[in-house]
Amino acid sequence: MKSGHDIEAAKRVVVKIGSALLVDPERGTVHRSWLEGLAEDMARFKTRGQEVVVVSSGAIAVGRRHLELPPGRLRLEESQAAAATGMVRLAHAYQEVLAHHDMTVAQVLVTIDDSENRRRYINARNTLETLLRYGAVPLINENDTVATDEIRFGDNDRLAARVAAMISADLLIVLSHMDGFYDRDPHEFADAQHIPEICGNLTPEIEAMAGNNKSYDGSGGMITKLAAARIAIGSGTRMIIADGTESHPLRRLEAGARCTRFLPTANPKTARKQWIAGSLKPMGSVVLDVGAINALHAGKSLLPAGVTAIEGYFQRGDAVTIKAPDGSEIGRGLIAYSAADAARIVGYKTSEIEAILGYRGRDEMIHRDDLVLS
Known about the structure:
Elements: H1 3-9, E1 12-17, H2 19-22, H3 32-47, E2 51-56, H4 59-66, H5 76-99, E3 105-110, H6 113-116, H7 118-133, E4 137-142, H8 156-166, E5 171-176, E6 181-182, E7 194-195, E8 197-199, H9 204-209, H10 222-234, E9 238-243, H11 249-254, E10 259-263, H12 268-278, E11 284-288, H13 290-297, E12 307-312, E13 319-323, E14 329-334, H14 339-345, H15 353-357, E15 371-373
Parallel strand pairs: 1-2, 1-5, 2-4, 3-4, 5-9, 8-10, 11-13
Antiparallel strand pairs: 6-7, 9-10, 11-12, 13-14, 14-15
Helix pairs in contact: 3-5, 4-5, 8-10
């Protein structure tokens, strides 16, 4: 199957853009013509009904020049200052080029805690889902302005993979100055062999092939791209590493440009269900009536009206056990309310939630996408 078919079949696509593609390293300016070509490619995705998320590097590369920071490795506070300066200019550039195609940009800054803390994870996921539902293009970057060395992702390759996993994306496209993965560094070895496809988990042999080259102003390299591939594969997301240096990189990729495709053995929905069912420790339980159980088996979400009791102490976003009236486990899920708030709305209709809690929460206590039946 050609990579072009991979792209066209994907309903939700995350595109990661390397700093070297987007920013002139000498002047700290955005490559405007290149970005305009990318915007045209993304507009074509939207006309096909595909959802697009962009994870973009480049904020520090842009900001450091405008602040006239010294060359070489920056101190943490200098990187944070550069990011704060560059993010404004970077977001503005995306907003301008995508506005020509009637596409709305929404900037989202994240830290690693947003993907590992259950409550913040579900908040970030819900925000991104809402933006996509209303047709916006989320523009995501690591929040370098407040991150510390201990909590940073460290590179946007892994950030992109975490985001793809968070929103159950079908495809992650990593655009860089390389046209894929090689058995050894092609810059050092003329006989290096391009590997067009890697299926399933990454073996130690594949990981040993990765070099440690880093692009100018970048914190990645092939090692971090393999780390991203491992995250993507684990979440059921297909990933492509492709050369983005030419204009219209996504169009070229759809036309069959050379790349490396990483293919998981499960799809995003299946992988997410497996993760909920087997990787998370339940922090409490919800007990259902028979009608709610039948609704779940029919593919519905769990509404407060079908819940008869709350057990244990949990926070919004935690995993909980779903029980039948006799106490037997029938499934697991990620709950949208804390134990205290869930207990207050047990048995009530969704239209009554706001009056009871004083805020408008989610209609579902557990959304069907966050639920696995035994």
